[in-house]
Each structure stands twice: as structure tokens, then as C-alpha cells.
Design brief:
single chain; alpha+beta; D-amino Acid Aminotransferase, Chain A, domain 1; OB fold (Dihydrolipoamide Acetyltransferase, E2P); 5 domains; five-stranded mixed β-sheet; five-stranded antiparallel β-sheet; 24 helices; binds 8-methoxy-2,3-dimethylquinoxalin-5-ol
Amino acid sequence: MDTAEQIEQLRDQIRDYNYHYYVLDDPLVPDAEYDRQFRHLLSLEQQYPEYLTPDSPTCRVGDKPLSHFESVRHQPPMLSLANAMDDEEARAFDKRIRQKLELITVEYNVEPKLDGLAVSILYEKGRLVRAATRGDGTVGEDVTQNIRTIDSIPLRLRGDELPAMLEVRGEVYMPKAGFDELNKKQQAAGKKPFANPRNAAAGSLRQLDPKITASRPLDMFSYAIGRVEGIKLPGTQSGRLAVLKNLGLRVCPEVDVVMGIDACLSYMELLGRKRAHLPYEIDGVVYKVNDIAQQEALGNLSRAPRWAIAHKFPPQEEMTILEAIDVQVGRTGALTPVARLKPVFVGGVTINNATLHNAAEIKRLDVRVGDTVIVHRAGDVIPKVTGVVLSRRPENAVPYEFPEVCPVCGSDVAVEEGGIITRCSGGLFCDAQRKQSIKHFVSKNAMDIDGMGDKRVEQLVDVGLIRDVSDIYRLQMEQLLKLERMAEKSATNILNAIEKSKQTTLPRFLYALGIPQVGEATALILASHFTDIDGIRSASIEELQSLDDVGPVVALDIATFFRQTHNLEVIERLIMAGVYWPTIEKRMQHEPELMGKVFVITGTLSEMSRSEAKARLQALGAKISSSVSSKTDYVVVGENPGSKAVKAIELGIERLDEEGLKQILRPSSA
Ligand code: I6G
């Protein structure tokens, strides 16, 4: 084989690796092997520059910054999409279509609407020759150099039957993880962070210097064909997306085909639930009539097709008035400012409160009582105040003064962790901390004492019946019956639940103690390593730190907790009151057969939460992944599993039901 052939063969190999990695999401080789081949190609191309071609996978970053962007006229124009703001509008869209087509029900291609920016990419004889932004839909900017830097966009199409010409349209976006990382870097460099992934993607693509674009984590999904010559296209939208995928272009894996508007709305609901977990931001769902002949019969309006609509999620950001700032004291004494808001409808629910995180955040925002603020709510996470509308600030608004003493017990506060956390120094003298630590102790994943809700705990502390968690096990019927809102039946239920909670497990008990930084996963790791509480109590910081996931800060917190006499006394009293757990067999540190094995969990488990299953597997040395690939060893399949269960079958990966998982988690008899 001569050098030219060798180089071309290497390029084909790397293109194939890219296709499997980016488009099929199923890498063929480990990263190290890919890097080796890539470097081999680079060195051959350096040695024989006469064989260098612009469609080589090594030729992504051009070296000349532009002075300006040329204009590109789109032919046909890049239309936009009409919006449906709620289900009723989506139903009206479907009704109009059914009437026009004289059909009872219509088939739709459905896919997420990414929050990025639309681009058009032109391939001639399979080679990427030009790329442009949407601009105003008629004229955009030539961003070819920048688009070439996006690794997942092929510089050459795949396959034997290449179109003479193909203009692909799609959305360039910045994945959430890349956005967070980029903003960290911006801040570290003293630069202004980007407001959202969309702005970051747009700003990155509109750089005159392609090296800057190359350093930004951009990606793209293709969703339509503008023009094509030289191949015959299928007669459906979904078929055309399959063609794009076969040509080596990324298509969103969430795309689906459904019958009728009810199924469209179910898809929207499903995606709404998935939204927070998707690796990219979406702001709605696009419904397109799937049959191209039907699309053509419906035609276009001047700026948007009649056969498609973007059904938007309710806005996640709204403005409202900040009526007050309250400061709450948590279990570990951290003071958290909470914004009390004029009620506002955001992201599908009415919000009254939002977090302001900490004193530094209040200072950064310079947020003042009376201000009009921007409230953000994404998925199920706690709403937060993200900005102030300064033009609406009342004249008499005064800067907020963060309290210098604990608002609950009056103890001094100390500022920790680089000025981020303000902590009450009162410890269990502080009623707020006492209440929070008891609420944590009785909670479901800790000692699981039914009937001891937040209100009940507050009442028991307020009347002085409980001072620390060990007092729970001394409660008497007569004491409970004297309380307000306490009938005999509730009192009996509470006492039974307290009795039942005495039999627990070591990980639960450790978690319930509320040791700073010890969540369920760390509690499990501690329990399976030390197997009893004395071992943990007497462990050195070095020994604690040698465990997976236990860093120096966590190790210090654990050691400090067990050096406090009052904590040891509480533990002693709990054990004296009858709290006990089965001894953990000193099983091999990590089951050797689980060490490094990759698990994916899909669906709902009936006897443990997914996070518990995850933590228990990790404690045995296994790794947890969110997606199924050829590297996965086991897929745990619960009730109502997702597509991962099917993928496991396709890839021939072992599937475990809940019983199988429990068997793996059970201590071996060895
Ligand atoms: O802006 C758009 C985003 C997503 C689109 C679009 C899309 O499909 C998933 N489809 C069309 C046909 C148009 N704009 C015009």
C-alpha cells in the first residue's frame, strides 16, 4: 500500500470511529486507541503535506481569523416555526390540519425543540463546502470555518450513494455540562459568564477567530433538508431523518413518530419529565406532519410552514416583586436567605418563595426588598432569584444587611468556605438546628419514623419533650396525649412507629446521625468498610480518607463529629434505648466480581430508591452509568423501564430484575 492509500485508509477509519461515537453514541474503540490513530494520521500528513485535503478529519481548525462574515442567501428561505403556548393551541393546530387534509387522524413526527441556533450546512459531492447561520431567514452569515471546528459535524458524508448536493438544516447548541464548564472558565478569567447555553452557543459560533470556536463545546442535531440533488428522498419526515443519520449526521435520539394529537401531547408530557435530565436545554417540542405529500398539500405561510408547530413549555422565568428576605437556619447551622415573593406563575406552578443561596449571592445581585426580580424555575428544582430589574427599583430601596447573629437563637455567626457559608455557632443550643436535625433523623431514608412530620417535630421541641434525637425513644403515651391536636390513635401510631424504627441498619443509622457531609452514599461506604460503629469512631483521618469518595474535608467532618463528647453520649443513649442493627458480615471489602463493573439502572424499583441502589452498588466498587453502551456490564430493569432496557437486549447485555439486583447486593456467605 502506498502512502496516499495508507493516509486515505486511516482517514476512513477515523471517520468511522467518529460516526459511531457522535451519531450512534456507541464508540467502536477506547479513546486512547482513537487518539493513537489520529496522531498517526497527523504525523503522516505533516510528513507528506502534498496529500493533505480539506476533508481530512484532522483539518478542522483553519488558522486565519476573518475580518468579517460574508453574507449567504438561503434558497429556499429558512422558515421559522409557529408556536403553540398551551395544549389548546396545539389541538387547534391539529384540527386545522385534519380539516384541510380531510382526515380523521394525522401522523406526526415529534422531536424536542432545542434551545440553540439554526444553521444551514451545504455538502457538495459529499464534502462540506459552506455553512451559514439562519440570520433573518433570507440572508445569514457564512460561518463555515467555525462549523468545521465542531467535531460531531462530518466534513465528509458517509456511504456509497452520496447526493451531488445536500443542504442540511439543524440546530447548533451547547450541552449543559459544557456550558457550566465554560462559565466556570469565564469567571476564573474574570470574564462575564454567559446568561444561558443558547447565548453561549450563538456567541461561540459568531467568533471571527475559529480557534476560539474550536475551544467551545458545541454540538448539532440535524432536523431538515433544505435542498437535495442526486438522490431520491423517502416520502416521510422520519424517513428523511433516517437518511440524514445514515449519511453521518447527528439526529436527536428523542425523535419519534406518533398518531394523532393526543399522542403528541403525551410525548410533550414525557419530554417535560425528562427535560431536567437531558444533556441539553430544550424549550418545547416540534410536531411535524410526517407525510411529505401532506406537508406539500398544506404549504407554507410567508415565514412558517403550515404543517409544523413548536409547542412551548411554560416559561421558566418570570418577573415578580421581592416582598421580604427571611433567613432560615439549616441542620448544620448554615444560614440560607429565602426570597418571599409576590406569587407568580413560573414553569407551570405558582411560586411564593425562592432561594437566594447565601450572603455572597445577595451581594452579587445587590437584591433589595421591593425590587422587581427575575425568578427561574427549571424542572423540579428549587426556584431561584437570578436577577434584578434595576429600571424598576423603587427609590427608597435599601441594600440588604445580612444578619450578624443567628435569627433563631441569637448566637454569633461565622463565615466559612471562602465567604460563601454563614453558620450559626449555636450548635444544638439553637432550636432551628435542633429541629432540623430531628426532622432529618426521623425522615424516610433515615430512621423512617412514620407520623413524625415536620409540624409534629416542631411541636415536640417547642414544648420541651425532645431536646436531642435520643429523647424520641423516651416519649410516653401520657406526654403525647397532653399535646394539642393529638388523638389517642395518632399517639399510638407514633409510639408504634418509634418502636419499629429501633430495628435499623448501620448505614441508615449513620445517615440519620446527620454527620456533616455524610449522605446516604457515604454512610454506605463507611458501613461496608468498617462494619461497626466503633471502627468508624476510632478511625484516623488518613484511614477515612483512604475510602472511595471520602475527601479530606469529609474525613475531617466525620472525625470531628466522633470527637464530640455530646455526640457520643447521644449515640450511647440511642443504643441504650434499644436501637440496634444486624452486624454486617465482614464481607470482602469489595466483591471482586463487582469491582469496576458498569451498571445502568432504568425504571422504578419497588423496595429501594434508585439513589439507594446506586449508592449500594458503588459501595461495592461498581460504577454507575446513565447510558447503555457496549461498555455496560449490567442493566438493572425496574418497573416502567425506558429505552435502555431495549438497548440492553440489542447489545446483548445482561439484564437484572430487582430480585437479581438484591442477590448481588446481599452479603455473600463467604
Ligand atoms: O427552528 C426549528 C427548530 C426545530 C425548526 C424546525 C425544527 O425541527 C425540529 N423545523 C422546521 C421545519 C423549521 N424550524 C422551519
